[in-house]
Design goal:
The protein is an all-alpha fold. The protein contains six helices and no strands. It folds into two domains: 32 residues, no CATH class; 50 residues. The longest helix has 27 residues.
Length: 96
C-alpha cells in the first residue's frame, strides 16, 4: 500500500501490513517507529501542502488588493465580498 495513506484504525493498519511486505519488515525491526510513521498526518509530514496553501492564499490576497485598488481608481465602490476575501486571506496567512 502507498506510504501516503493514513492509518485511522487498527483494521487499516492490519490491511496495510498484509498488503505491504516492506512495512511488515519495518514493523518487525522497529515497531514503534514504523507504526508512528504509518500513522503520521500528511499535513505534518509534507511541507509542500503548506507551501501550496500559502501560495494560493497569497495570490488571493493580491487579487483582492489589486481589485480593490483598481475599483477605487475608477470611482466604483468596493464590494463587501472583495473586502471579505482579502480579510480572510490575511487571517489565514497569519495562521500558517
Amino acid at each position: 500500500m502507498a506510504e501516503t495513506s493514513r492509518v485511522q484504525s487498527v483494521q487499516d493498519l492490519a490491511a496495510m501490513i498484509t498488503q505491504d511486505p516492506e512495512l511488515e519488515q519495518r514493523i518487525k525491526e522497529n515497531p514503534v517507529a514504523a507504526i508512528a510513521r504509518a500513522a503520521d498526518n500528511p499535513l505534518q509530514a509534507d511541507p509542500i501542502i503548506y507551501f501550496v496553501v500559502v501560495i494560493i492564499l497569497g495570490v488571493g490576497l493580491l487579487v483582492a488588493t489589486c481589485g480593490a485598488f483598481f475599483l477605487t481608481l475608477y470611482g466604483v465602490n468596493i464590494p463587501d465580498l472583495l473586502s471579505a476575501l482579502g480579510s480572510a486571506a490575511v487571517g489565514a496567512l497569519g495562521v500558517c
